[in-house]
Amino acid sequence: MSDLHAQMIAAHEAHDQAALVWLYTQAANTANDPDAACFFLTHAYVFALEAGAHETQTLHARLVAHGREA
């Protein structure tokens, strides 16, 4: 996870919305518990909304499936 964390920091510093969506989604996919996964999914979703990314609907559906969004 440390490599992923370093990539997240670099993407934040570069204001790279597309990378942030992808990296936070990857963090959610590899999280060891549902709360951590949903934490990362929420961030990915927000970055996707801000960027107008095509992943927005998929991320939203995942949050709904975890009962985190209506």
Written account of the structure:
By secondary structure, this protein is mostly helical. Helices cover 79% and strands 0% of the residues. The protein has helices at 2-14, 17-30, 34-51, 56-65. Helix 1 runs antiparallel to helix 2 (17-30), helix 2 (17-30) runs antiparallel to helix 3 and helix 3 runs antiparallel to helix 4 (56-65). The relative contact order is 0.15. The model has no long low-confidence stretch (mean pLDDT 95).
Which range does the strand content fall in?
A: under 5%
Question: Averaging pLDDT over every residue, what do you get?
Answer: 95
For the largest beta-sheet, the strand count, sense and barrel status come to: none
Structural class: mainly alpha
Number of contiguous helices? 4
Number of domains: 1
Shape: flat
- Counted beta strands: 0
Share of helical residues: over 70%
Low-confidence stretches at least 5 residues in length (pLDDT < 50)?
A: none
Q: What is the straight-line distance between the termini?
A: 30 Å
List keywords for this structure.
70 residues, single chain
Task: Offer a quick outline of the entry.
With 70 residues, this protein is mostly helical.
Helices and strands in order, then pairings?
Blueprint: H1 2-14, H2 17-30, H3 34-51, H4 56-65
